[in-house]
Amino acid sequence: MDPTRPDLHLGHTVVMRKLREFQKLGHKIVLIVGGATAMIGDPSGKSETRPALTKEQVEENAKTYFEQMSKVLDVSEAEVVNNADWLHKLNFTELLQLAGKVTVAQMMTRDDFAKRYSEGKPIAIHEFFYPLMQAYDSVAIDSDIELGGTDQRFNTLLGRDIQSAYGKKYPQLVMMLPLLEGTDGVVKMSKTYPEHCISLTDSAKDMFGKLMSIPDTLITRYYSLLTDVEQSELVKMDKEIESGSINPRDIKMKLAHMITEEYHGKDGADKAQEDFINVVSNKGIPDDIESVKIDAEGINILDLLVKLSFVQSKGEAKRLIQGGGVKLDGEKLSDMAYTVKPAMDVVLQAGKRKFAKLI
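RESULT FIELD:
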């Protein structure tokens, strides 16, 4: 997992949950933190070159990865390694030898590279090295099987080829796992789209609320990929939703509680559910609403939303306002140049679940 951002999300846990199954069967699992590969960025599915990260940015992002992984895996029984430990040690001659084991024609069979080339979009040479570096990881740890999402097909299969090129008689097997869609139900859950992402570092309240926001069409898919509910139960659930014999909201709430409990405990999940029902269903305001003191000079509403971490960026703040998702004392705010002044004593609401008392 490349530490391009400081938090893991539920999409990452699809692979981690499968690793946990291997772990329970007595297999040794190796978790690779991409300290070197993150500095390039995986071009899989990208329509343009990703900005490079510095060594310091990568190290800062990776600080809490071990703790986050421990929420799913028994990390005391796993080996956690950083591919910077071997990739940064390769000299230029060794790097050229690695590059010589793959052709440009092979690289261009990747859908994203082929698409960008046909559209006349630039492909930087260093992007060709990302799959090579990931493939070399398989040589470095001498893996027997590699797990990854379906978007990693090219990279993981290249790992087999590179292992063979370096003399491994029986190269690794590859297990592809489904990608989890984000809360919009369209694009895969990704750190690139934080507004549709459910992070393992989210509070219980935010995690529960985001899970309740997924489309009904994703309910059984989330159950399938994120819980241990039996397949027969999922088939039954699908039929009940389709026939209208059960309210999808009730099944979704059970799902939200189940997943939130896994990461925040039963008490955290119970409180998150109680708050959700109060705020969303009963149109109430949370009991634990935060009071925020506004400076004398005031602050632009876009800046305030970012400062409070209600949104990730001003762009997201604008979209939220345009969609009628920002309110002051229950009144929708449409003016993006609006200045919040001190001592207004109003309640700011962003979306359905985020509140602050402005004083």
